[in-house]
Amino acid sequence: MKKFLKILGIIFVGLILTIILGYYNFRYTAEDVVVKNNMTQDEYGWFVDVPNEQATIIMYQGALVDAKAYLPLAASIAEKGFDIYIMDSWFDLPIFGINQAQNIIDREQLQNVILMGHSLGGVVGSQVALSNSNIEGVVLLASYPAEGTDLSNSTMKVLSIVGNQDQVINRENYDNSEIRLPATTQKVVIDGGNHSQFGDYGFQKGDGIATISKEAQWQQVADEVCQMFSK
Q1: Separation of alpha carbons 139 and 74, rounded Å
Q2: Is the model's pLDDT at 110 over the cut of 50?
Q3: Among the listed residues 80, 70, 186, 221, the one whose alpha carbon sits nearest the alpha carbon of residue 58
């Protein structure tokens, strides 16, 4: 029995080490991201603060992507007058931080909240928005609601943005998800944009080659968010 437990313990430790090594091998870290004076970090992630904000955006990161990698995008949007929180989930997986948006809303007593998510982060954000009366809109970046998340009868504003060079997103699932979105959903295709350039974490394996700069892609996202959600 002791020998069996010892073997079981060795297997368990090996499994944990495999998971940890796999995480660090496949994780996408932020590149040369500059942290500005209006950017702070706390237990939930990053916050980009602006005076006299129009609304607050809470963002869920993409799977295995360092939350810090979205600071340049957040900075572009913040220039339009939006406070932004970027959730930093355990193991960089937004499914492990699904309650973080509500924690921020409760802590800061927020109103007029917009949920934004990249890739898997958008899947999580859609699910959170469905059950939260404080959410006035959703921004999906290379993302779509899961099969069990039906926003079609919602009065929320939904903005869906995807790059035409994106080779990571499942196009069939993306197209099929349209029936789960409100009829008023604004769908935007960024000409030359890809999956990776919604953040600043380098090139994601399997993606298409962008024909515009990452800065241009961030600016187009910021412009679309401003156009839809500005007061």
Answers
A1: 13
A2: yes
A3: 70
